[in-house]
Design brief:
The protein is of the alpha/beta class. The chain contains 15 helices and twelve strands. The protein starts with a strand and ends in a 5-residue tail after the last helix. The protein binds nicotinamide-adenine-dinucleotide (NAD).
């Protein structure tokens, strides 16, 4: 099948290479020329395990092409995946600027029947609104708009896309349903969990899933905060609680709160959508407020330990990305903690296996960056560990002790 994918970010690139790998001809469309040049040359503009090999193989085989021309992209594909960014806009609502721009191009340039699959996370009602817009723009072309939310995790995106726990296909259009089923068929060997529903339900499934994951994280963080005050060990608590199959062990790790490009903005968007619809989502409001406070506890603990005298101290920082196996630093608690410590006069020397280039774009030269995890410990008064990269899990404590000024 001929497919165009709009947006070559984490999601669009993974969707494109995986669909090319299963024999489709895929054209990637983006407005960012620099990104397109890198991709054309077989280089990835971000860190995502396994994707590079698929990218290079499918370029070699002639199944992956790249363009910045929306017209070319719209004309090329029988199926058009839209995977552009949908960042947070005003009042927590979603900024649909990029998505609408793609839809306007589809309306302008469509030359034959198109199935448009929205992969971006969009507020409930968006697919219906976009379909109406296309129909108003063009009476001579038939369009199907499918809500096809994506559930991949950065760091394991390719595996999640090619062996999905579930696929949600939101459409009531039989033609689109058949095409989407055919496209996903190669990825359905392990599980055939495809959920067909209408656009609105599919859009809500994505928000409800992320809101639930966020709830689990804020839940265990709240339990951890209580544990600390009453003498219980939250690690033992989470293991025993998570052993109950009704609860499950995943996403029950206490820490500095969730970040990333999805959970915070999707939770905010769902809260804003609920309020706009006249409902106050008090549970979701609390999930957010626990998270907003969580990273601050760590800073407060550091201040308490040093009795408020932080000025002039040096802190090493391990981890900058919002979670391991990614270079994504959007909404990363590590950056918030670094900024708070800098404001208190702490000098910071940071290390992350892959996220330093992205972190530099935000923190600039306010922070020193080390080449290795032990490099940054030299003369440090404390080490703050924020991202659970595998390499930080069993460090050489003797070496750390000999390098640090204070072993905190
Ligand atoms: P991203 O910011 O990494 O990439 C978005 C890309 O879209 C950029 O390359 C940008 O240049 C491009 N773009 C912007 N306007 C464009 C236009 N008019 N035409 C073509 N390209 C355009 O975003 P992402 O992390 O891949 O997320 C994309 C969507 O998928 C978002 O809605 C996000 O919420 C959702 N999502 C993300 C993840 C994730 O783990 N990152 C998981 C599930 C869903």
């Amino acid at each position: 099948m001929r497919i165009s994918v709009f947006g070559t970010g984490y999601v669009g690139t993974v969707v494109a290479v995986a669909l090319a790998e299963t024999g489709n001809d895929v054209m990637c469309v983006d407005t960012d020329e620099k990104r397109l040049t890198m991709l054309r040359e077989g280089r990835l503009p971000f860190h995502e395990p396994g994707v590079l090999e698929y990218l290079q193989r499918n370029i070699r085989e002639g199944r992956l092409t790249f363009t910045s021309s929306a017209e070319e992209g719209v004309r090329y594909g029988e199926v058009l995946f839209v995977a552009v960014g949908t960042p947070q806009g005003d009042d927590g609502l979603t900024d649909l600027g990029a998505l609408k721009e793609v839809f306007r191009s589809i309306g302008r340039f469509a030359n034959s029947r198109k199935v448009v699959a929205i992969k971006s996370t969009v507020p409930v009602g968006t697919a219906r609104e976009m379909k109406k817009m296309l129909e108003e723009m063009r009476k001579d072309v038939e369009f199907s708009v499918v809500s096809n939310p994506e559930f991949m995790k950065e760091g394991a995106a390719l595996a999640d896309f090619t062996k999905p726990a579930r696929v949600v296909i939101g459409t009531t259009d039989e033609y689109a349903r058949q095409i989407m089923t055919e496209l996903y068929e190669p990825f359905m060997r392990v599980s055939k969990r495809v959920f067909f529903c209408n656009n609105e339900t599919a859009e809500m499934i994505k928000y409800a899933s992320n809101a639930f994951l966020a709830t689990k994280i804020s839940f265990i963080n709240e339990i951890a905060n209580i544990c600390e005050r009453v003498g219980a060990d939250v690690n033992q608590v989470r293991l025993a609680v998570g052993a109950d199959p009704r609860i499950g062990a995943q996403f029950l790790f206490p820490g500095v709160g969730f970040g990333g490009s999805c959970l915070p903005k999707d939770l905010n968007s769902l809260i804003a959508q609920a309020k706009k619809a006249g409902y106050t989502p008090s549970l979701l409001d609390s999930v957010r407020s626990v998270n907003e406070k969580q990273w601050k506890w760590l800073v407060a603990k550091i201040e308490a330990h040093f009795k408020g005298n932080l000025k002039g101290l040096k802190s090493a920082l391990w981890g900058l990305s919002f979670k391991p196996e990614t270079d994504d630093i959007r909404e990363s608690p590590a950056l918030k903690i670094a900024t708070a410590l800098l404001e208190k006069g702490v000098k910071i020397s940071a290390y992350d296996p892959v996220a330093i280039p992205n972190a530099k774009k935000v923190l600039g030269d306010s922070v020193e960056y080390g080449k290795g995890m032990y490099d940054v410990l030299e003369g440090a008064d404390m080490l703050v560990v924020v991202t659970e990269w595998l390499e930080f899990r069993h460090p050489d404590f003797g070496r750390m002790h000999s390098l640090m000024r204070q072993p905190v």
